[in-house]
Amino acid sequence: MNAKSKNSTLADLKIIRVFSGGQDVPDGGAIFSARANFTVTGPADASLQLLIDDVPKYNGQTNNAGDLNFLIDDLPDGRHEYRLAHEDERTDPFTMNAVATKPFIETLKDSTGDVENGGSTGETDLKINGLWKEGQIWILNGAAEPIVMFRVGSDRSWGGDLTLAAGKIHTLKARADDRSESDLYTVTVGEVSEGEVKITSLKDSKGEVASGGTTTDTQLTISGSAKDGEIKLLEGDNTTPVGTFTVTNDVWGGTFELTAGKTYALKAVAEDGEESAVYTVTVSEAPEVELEITSLKDSKGDVADGGATDDTSLTISGKAKDGKIELLEGANTTPIETYTATDGTWGGAFVLSAGATYALKAKAEGDAESETYTVTVNAAPPETRVKH
User: Fold this and answer.
1) Could you tell me the superkingdom of the organism this chain comes from (predicted)?
2) CA 99 to CA 92: how far, in whole Å?
């Protein structure tokens, strides 16, 4: 995890250790919780950021030895890349798969190796495997009944043989006993029938959006099947496409945008006029995010509003509209720390002095302020001298 640094003073920028569920997590490993602790190092007394898939998510301040811990309890499901950043320097990625709220399809294999999500194979006899916490996993193909069941092993893996029909695009998903479902895994088996035009998947930033479903995202990702050529994505009776895509190896897809506050009847149309079935989605207005401080933690856990701690280094988190957040104390206009709200959340580490009570509040760019969150940092105990 060494940083590719332009400056020798940043050579110590590093993700040292990732710990979750009582054990160390190796690069490329999996965890079964949304909670993990990242032990990192960087320049002394420096502001560091932890990035997820190159997007800044968490902020923190190293101590005078250059040490810092990011204790995160809202990690996103799935395989993601984590990097540590300081100014314009970033570490190499640490890859980790969080399997916290839904099962995960890890690989699909034919006799030659992995078949990627969205890929194709000429074989009908395949092997599938994935991860989940416990119980049984049912594999569904589209909206059909389950086609096979696997038991989750003691190592939390599952998998086995899977037979799929030729000449079709299959949209697989894994369903757990609690009815949570994995993201879709799409594979084309053999030659797709002439003129078969389908919308097979629609995704927002959180995962699959079923036909008839709702999302607050305006930018979506669509995929489908057709013979090679061009596909126009139309809405209702409108002849102006909301997106145009190129079919390659019988698969098409990409991103497109819709306007919030409407319901859309989408259909894919091929060059010969062949149309898919209608895929309906509602894009709702994004709810207003109230600016608030939701959590304050010390090395032992949560510190309640009005509570006390012996620690001077604390971790704060909250909710806000995306943008800059300043953490203020009392009537002081100089921020203790500054954070960036992303996807409605913000937070990171900051330092207070011992022996004082603080009235903390978060301030957004539009001058909106949160309710006050009060915490007392206890005075350090006096030194005890040993008489000889």
Assistant:
1) Bacteria
2) 23
Is 2 a member of any domain? no
141-153 tens-digit pLDDT: 876 678 999 999 9
Nearest residue to 112 via CA among 102, 120, 104: 120
Q: Are 225 and 188 in contact (CB under 8 A)?
A: yes
- Residue 161 tokens read as 């043989």
Instruction: Find the length of the chain.
Output: 388
The rounded distance, in Å, linking the Cα atoms of 282 and 280 is 7
* Contact predicate 186/201, CB 8 Å: yes
* Residue 208 lies inside a defined structural domain of this protein: yes
SS3 content of the chain, % helix, strand, coil (to 5): 0, 55, 45
Distance in angstroms (rounded) separating the CA atoms of residues 298 and 142:
46
- Residues 184 and 242 reside in one and the same domain: no
**Eight-class DSSP state of 109:** E
Domain count, the chain: 4
DSSP 8-state symbol, 236: T
Three-state secondary-structure class, residue 318: strand
Q: What is the pLDDT of residues 152-211, one digit of tens each?
A: 999 999 999 999 988 788 889 999 999 999 988 989 888 655 557 889 889 998 888 888
- Residue 241 is assigned to a structural domain of this protein: yes
Q: 118 is written with which tokens?
A: 């969205």
The residues that bridge with 323 in the sheet, in sequence order, are 341
* CA triple 207-192-281, angle to 5 deg: 30
DSSP conformational letter for 320? -
**Beta pairing, strands 323-329 & 337-341:** antiparallel
Calpha distance 68→307 (Å, rounded): 24
CA 57, CA 49: separation in Å to the nearest integer? 7
CA of residue 288 relative to chain centroid, distance: 21
Structural domain harbouring 129:
102-191
What does the alpha-carbon distance between residue 4 and residue 10 come to, in Å, rounded to a whole number? Answer: 9
What stretches in the chain show pLDDT beneath 50? Answer: 1-11, 384, 386, 388
Would you give the DSSP letter of residue 342?
A: B
Secondary structure of residue 325 in the 3-state scheme: strand
